[in-house]
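dude i think i finally got it to work??
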Amino acid sequence: MNADAGDRAAESCEALLERLRSIDLPTLGHLLEEGFVSPAIRRLGQAGRMVGTAATLALDAPDATAVNRAIVALRPGEVLVVDMAGDHDHAAIGAVTAAAARARGAAGVVVDGVVTDVDALADADSGLPVHARGTSCLTTKRRDGGGGRRQVPVDIGGVLVAPGDIVLGDANGVIALPRASLAAVVDRADASDTAEPELLRRIRAGEDLSTLLHLD
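look at this
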């Protein structure tokens, strides 16, 4: 890909991300069947929408150094996506790592495992959107950094996430999909969200539910 094509692709991705920032995530659930991360992974950090592109880490051992290296490598707008290889005991993210990810401009963090320091993760000054399976006081340890592989496909809550995929999250859950999959439905999602306030108004006004719910 030449430089001009790369610039156009980056602009196209940013335009799609901007549109997705205004789409209700459950609306995508009406239009898609794939990409929905297990509901066991829920928001534990800062309230608000998470929208970004995946920077992945497959953590094969509870290696804090590998996590730190992945954080230092983050680019603005990325979501750090951590596959804990089934380890749901060691927390890979806490107050310091979340603050560091925020300092790198991260859009959020998704961990298929547990996190710690949940009050700090939700702090408006130092936290950021973090989604995980739960909390623990047991944490990863500083090792040689060899326990992690960056920018490889990872399995997060039953969804295969590749580097550069779009990752979305809010209080309802997490969605991770290739750009093309979301670009294919964003127009319909936008139209559905635009129409919903009027539909709710008509329901509250007492109009026939069979008609409004497409049962006739």
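The chain has a mean pLDDT of 93.
im so relieved honestly
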